[in-house]
Amino acid sequence: MNSPREKRHSLSTVTEEMKRVRRSTIGSLHSLQFEGESYPPPAAEPPKSPTPVYSVDIRNHESRASSNGSDEEGEEEAIDMTLVNQQPDPSLHLFSRRKKKAIIHLMAIAALFSPLSSNIYFPAIESISKDLHVSSAMVQTTISSYMIFQGLAPSFWGPMSDIKGRRPVLIATFTIYVIANTCLSQVKSFPVLFILRAMQAIGGVSTLSIGSGVIGDMTTKAERGGMMGVFQGVQMMGRSFGPVLGGVLSQFGGFRSIFTFLAAISGAVVLGLLLFLPETLQTIAGKGEVQTRGIYRPLGLKPPSYATQPQNTNRKKEKLSIAVFAAPFKFILEPDVFVSLFFGGIVYTVYSMISSSTTTSLQNLYKLNDLEVGLAFGANGIGCVIGSFTTGKLLDYDYKRTKEEQDAKSRDSKLGYEDDSFPIERARLRSAWIMIMVFGFSTVGYGWSLEYEKHLAVPLVFQFFVGWASTAIFNMNSTLIVDLFPGKSASATAVNNLIRCILGAGGVSVIDLMLEKAGEGTTFTALSSITFAASILVWIELRYGGIWRKKREMKLATKESPFPTA
């Protein structure tokens, strides 16, 4: 019988071996070296179905002293070694949490320009109308066109970044955005303004889908909600401060100064991307262990110490084709994706109709100038920023609660894996009902406060809650979409953006007519009613989303799905 000393030595040896196995798994090695053998064997042909990864669960147990009462044996820690057939979470990454946050902040600053370019424009509508000798309704069409291309462009850039890499596509498209703003600063005719606004949208909006792709590349589901909250919160500062900046610039420098400002600061951001943004697409950069080269390597950073593998330049590359760009649209055919996207699109449409009509409503009812209108937009924008950051924390909290309900202390969760039966839909949408109620009733209150011309502070308070609740719903919706397709998150986010912007553009194009015919109170009450009616889609997602997701995963496993595996 082994002595206590020999038992402790054996325990220590086994524990160290277990730690080494876990490190090798997280380090994304292709096989686990365990007791001198590799799995799978080097000569084995790649299996047709996903290869199971065997992990070890270490659990602490207490054992009593042996029957001879020896104090040396005391309490011992026993090892329960269990081979668990699990597929590792593809989001496990070697970047530290601090580095992930730094990358996400950089991406969020770049993504800030898409809402900024839209909202900074609102206070200048009347000034543009007078300067270019067109009606304000004509100027409103540039908002609709911006939203249409804002919806269409990510459907092209998202799939491209899923194949060619996040970094090169982002830098190229953001350069287009800088050029468009430079040209807009010199615009002198409405047709040119219309075309360049479309070009501005095409270049700037790529940051939204690619940013979500970067988050999907690096994060686990447990931390993704908070990271998405940071990403959305920083970019929503464009929605908050954009109209204020637009009002100041338009009031004192003319509307062209808006685009001069955008060109200057976006040029600085392009430089920051070149210097500090690493490639995160796992087919190129792995999970952080690959030393990237060329356009994929940030010019201002040295490779980290754990990046020890050379970049595989001979890897089989997926070719760009019509099928590749059409693939994201197939996401819409998945029922769980469709109901989530469509409800998010309804909320975004109502929100856009409120925002786009604010300038005309406030100037007509309260006789505000461009600067005052810009300041009035701050209430909505501040609500958006607060909504983003608070919802990020709420999403992480809801995820933790759901995880605890699903036995968070299981051995799979200890190793960072997640069972396929985990109800991710419930984790992301369990607080959605509160936000839907706040959004709907605030929309009604906003409409009737304008109808009865209440003090300016009243509609602005309602706008704050509209911004807060709508952004919370957007964050929940966006995070769920990334969860459903972690390997193709940029493409999935692009489709999400497409649905929102197409519906939003339609709403913006008719809001002036609705207000003219029905008035503010009736119009926004009707829009709120549509939102409440559409909320049944959230219930459908909670009830059936998990079932539909599991069916899709079964198809993926048997190669019957049109979607590439994550």
Concise synopsis of the structure shown:
Residues 1-77 are annotated as: Disordered. This protein has 566 residues and is mainly α. The protein has 22 helices and eight strands.
Structure overview:
This protein is mainly α and 566 residues long. The chain has two domains: 4-86, no CATH class; 97-310 and 318-397 and 424-557, MFS general substrate transporter like domains (Growth Hormone, Chain: A, Up-down Bundle), CATH 1.20.1250.20. It is built from 22 helices and eight strands. The chain has helices at 4-26, 97-111, 113-119, 125-132, 136-152, 154-164, 166-184, 190-204, 206-218, 221-253, 256-276, 282-285, 322-330, 335-366, 370-405, 411-414, 424-429, 432-451, 457-484, 489-518, 520-534, 536-557; strands spanning 32-34, 37-39, 53-56, 62-63, 76-77, 83-86, 290-291, 309-310. Helix 2 runs antiparallel to helix 11 and helix 14 packs antiparallel against helix 22. Residues 39-50 have a biased composition (Pro residues). Its main location: membrane. Residues 103-546 form the Major facilitator superfamily (MFS) profile domain. One of its GO terms (cellular component) is plasma membrane.
